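step: validate -> pass
step: tokenize input -> pass
step: predict -> running
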Amino acid sequence: MNTPIYSRIEEDMNDMDENTNSHWIEGGILRLEQMLASYAKFEELHGAR
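step: predict -> pass
step: emit ->
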């Protein structure tokens, strides 16, 4: 099945593998760190459960 949308997704996936995979991973780690920092701040303000 090689519809235009399918090939477009395939191209995007290939681009991601080649160029931006590490950026996606770094971005994900950064977001996790921010979430953990927010949670730690919340516990600090409201007390750990």
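step: describe -> The chain has a mean pLDDT of 77.
step: cleanup -> pass
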